[in-house]
Structure formats: structure tokens, C-alpha cells
Amino acid sequence: MQRQCRTGQAGKVRLLPLLCVLTLLALFEARQLSFLNRNNKKKVLFSARGYELVAFPSKGKVPIPSLKFRKIPLKPLTLAVSGSAEGSFEKSALTGFPYSTDNAAALLLGLPRLGGRLTLGMDAPAVNSESEDSNHVEAGYEQSLPGGGSVAARLRSNGEWGASFRHEVEDVGIVSGGLNSQLDWNLDLNTTYAPVRGFTPSVAYGATQDGIHLRGRVDKDFSPHWHGSYGLQNIPGKYSPVDFVHDSTISFTAGRHTIQASAAYDRQMLKSPLTGTLAYTLQTRPVTLQALMDGQQYALAAHSGRKSIAATLGRPNEEGQRSSQVQLQLGQVAATVKMEGSSKPRLRLSKIVL
């Protein structure tokens, strides 16, 4: 018997495999957390401001539980799972899941008591994808340092690797650096100085394989409503004043309304060295509205707790074509529809870690 399906129903049927995968990811995460706590027999009676009142079962012959008021301890282990699947709206693409979609998954293993986090991820592009990328597995680890800062390292199955660190030195600033498999490296020092007549200066000193760079910035509150900043930096290895990059921002806040205008000048951008951005934010209860316009796109967004919806419309390119995107997020699940020029729209479903 041949099955007939209307156009409106076909979209629902094609989305079912992707929704099932995201549901399985959420169930896996919940089952693992339940497994970690299966032997936890204590009962929390009350908790507030980082402390809790706990009742422990009796260890003697008299069945009287013991009570203890303590600071809430860190969990020994945390698990989180994220994943995504992206494909076109064509029937052959969606019904061929997972071979016809670009898939990604990651497992995040946290060690709160040690201050570490291990990440295991995998990328699996579509079998008929035009991209030259193949399946890759990536492992990464990040460790917090005493006194503030962290070190991190990652390794991919294709041989790529990278390492970075960040550490805050008292009365000096934040020192950071990194090195990757391409032997690209950087070393930076970010320092903020005491305000001078209301102006707060900050300087970032850095060096890369291409040379030394310096970035300076000054912030100023002109009034309770007006705030401005100006920044100047050179490109690593280029020290002529004509090659400096300038940027400035001014914002106005009145109650629930905020308007921010930014401009940047970069001589390296031959087609449009001068760029600008205009943004507006309205904070209401319970929704926050945002609007943005720059030389590349128009964007609108609405946020309410863990729910949001956003839309982006790109400006026409040299061929007169636009790109557009709409995203809906409900908690940890997000759905994104995007279209590039005259190409067919693509759908991406993902489970994210908040």
C-alpha cells in the first residue's frame, strides 16, 4: 500500500528522527546523574544561601536520624551531554538521517572538587557532503588554577592540538597565552589602571609569531546616563600610525531603554574601512527585546528566562543575495532555520549546555 502524505505533514515526519536523537541525549544525561546519586541516602531538609540542613540515617540501634547544618558541598562528578544535527528540508536528506545530516555530539565530564572539566566530542559530516572534512574526534581538558586562572589543552584525531593558559597576577593584570599545532602562539598581559579624572585607562601588551602589538582603551562615565570609550591598537608586526585600528563606543541608558552606537576604522579592510553598529535594548518584565543594525545584517531578538527567539537578515552581497536565519530556543533545545542566498533552507536541531 502506498503512503500519501501532504506537504504540511511531511515536514513533521522528517523532523521526527532529529527530535528523537535530542530526546535520547537528554534521557542519557538524566540517567547518568541518577546513577551517580543512587547511593545517596541523606535527606536535605532545608537549603538557602549556600548552606543546607541534612538528616542522616541512624547508625545505632535507636532509629533517630542525626542532623547537620553545613555548607553545601561540591558534587564529586557532573555529566552533561550536547549534540546537534543539521540537514536540508529535502525528503531524501531528512529520511536518510544520520548519514545525510551533519551531526555533532559532546560529553562534558565535570570535576567540581578538583576544578577540572573533561570534554569528549565528535563531528560527523554528511556522507554526501561537499566538504572535505571527515569524522573527527576531539578531547579537551581544562583545569582551574589556585588564585584565579586556568590551563586548557585539546587534541583532535586529525593531529591538530592546542594549549592555552590564563592567570591573574595581583597588582599586575591578567596574563594569557596559547600555542597550537601550526606553531601559532600568543602571549598577552591585560592591565587596568586607576582612574584619572574620571577616565579609566587599560592597556594590553602582547606578542605573536608575527610581532608585538599594543592595545589601549579609555572608558568614561560622562553622566549617570552616558558612557563612552575609545580604543587604539596596532596589528602585530605593523607599527606605522596609518595602520592603527580605531574603535569607539557611546551608550545612553534611561530606565529600561539602552541605545549603543559603535564605530571602527581599520585600513586593512579595503572595501569598507569604516564600519558602524547601532543597537537598542528594552528591558521589560518578563521579556527583554534587542535590535541591532550594522553593515552586515539586521537582527531582532526577544529573551525571557531560558526561552528566546531571534531573527537575522543579512544585507545584499555583491550578487544581490541575502542570508537569513531564525532561531527558537526553549531551555536546552534549540531549532535554527537558515538560508544562504538562493540555496535551499537548512534546519539545525541542537541540545545545548547552559
From TrEMBL:
Residues 127-148 are annotated as: Disordered. The keyword Signal applies. Keywords: Signal. Residues 1-30 form the signal peptide. This is Uncharacterized protein. It comes from Durusdinium trenchii.
